[in-house]
Design a protein that fits this description.
This protein has 310 residues and is an alpha+beta fold. The chain has 8 helices and 11 strands.
């Protein structure tokens, strides 16, 4: 609650349209020039000084009023301060006139080329450099995240943080480390928990919520956050690859053995049901052994024709 009270409330301005004020400024400048020109035709020194003073005053006022003309493009905003205090934000596109003493304020203006002091309200992409973190099991991994974000509250983005672009980048790094420490890189043997690699959709939503909670104070909305790069760190990548290969070989062998046992069981059952041959326990054991060797072997079996009795 205390933090919410400190947040700057956004004031959306409805300024005057600029075309009428532009016409007024042009008229003032034209009148000032006309008075200065007319002063040369008068014979009175007092009238000359009066006309020149009035003409110069109109030119100065007209020129100063021109400073209040502002252009706001689509999906841009202008945050204005008046003598050091927050005056309001223009979030509507168009040509406007505001108090000439107002000045635009944007501490992150150097991060975006071409926007000047204006704030961009467009959806922007933050592609942080991949960083090395430890997962839940302590394994060092490299992870990189792409974040889609935009400014929704101009007052908080400008006044409540020093530089909202640097702020979101720093908070994304912190959120990545926080989320990565809570989940393993890959699923465990039980396979009953989320993992960074196997549950990408769920992890992306968890990461988005984590970042959103951290940048709420800056008036930023996180539209999407997804893992763009995920790999074991180079120092353990080779060992983890061998581990994955061993797991794959074990899983494949287990499936082959299960299939071979069921096929042998089916063969013995069919032979017994059809009465093709009567086998005692010793011959059954020999047949089972031969079939398992044929079905589970890595290489093709070389058949041996038995010309005698079984």
């Amino acid at each position: 609650m205390e933090e919410a009270k400190k947040q700057t409330a956004e004031i959306v301005l409805r300024p005057k349209h600029g075309w009428g004020m532009l016409a007024l400024c042009v008229l003032l400048l034209a009148a000032g020039i006309a008075l200065c020109a007319a002063s040369g035709q008068t014979g009175s020194d007092a009238l000359l000084i009066l006309l020149v003073a009035a003409g110069v005053a109109l030119i100065v006022v007209g020129s100063f009023m021109l400073l209040g003309l502002k252009i706001v493009n689509p999906n841009e905003a202008l945050v204005l301060t008046l003598f050091g205090k927050y005056h309001g934000s223009i979030k509507t596109e168009g040509f406007f006139w505001v108090n000439p003493f107002c000045s635009a304020f944007n501490p992150a203006s150097g991060n975006f080329v071409g926007t000047g002091k204006k704030l961009s309200l467009k959806a922007m992409t933050l592609n942080n450099e991949k960083q090395k973190v430890n997962d839940e099991e302590g394994n060092p991994i490299e992870i990189g995240v792409v974040v889609i974000w935009k400014v929704v509250d101009t007052a908080r983005a400008v006044f409540d943080v020093d530089n909202y672009v640097s702020y979101i980048s720093t908070q994304c790094d912190a959120a990545i480390r926080q989320v990565a420490r809570q989940y393993p890189y890959d699923v465990s043997e039980n396979g009953d928990e989320k993992s960074l690699r196997g549950s990408s959709v769920e992890i992306a939503e968890i990461l988005r919520r984590e970042i959103q909670g951290r940048v709420e104070i800056a008036g930023i909305e996180i539209s999407e956050a997804r893992i763009a790069h995920l790999a074991y760190a180079p120092e353990i990548a080779a060992a983890m690859l061998q581990r994955q290969q061993a797991s794959a070989i074990i899983a494949a062998r287990q499936k082959i053995v299960d299939g071979a046992v069921s096929m042998v069981e089916m063969a013995l059952k069919k032979l017994n049901e059809n009465g093709v041959v009567q086998l005692d326990e010793e011959k059954k054991a020999a047949m089972v052994s031969n079939l398992l060797v044929v079905l589970c072997g890595n290489k093709d079996a070389q058949p041996v024709v038995n010309s005698g009795s079984m």
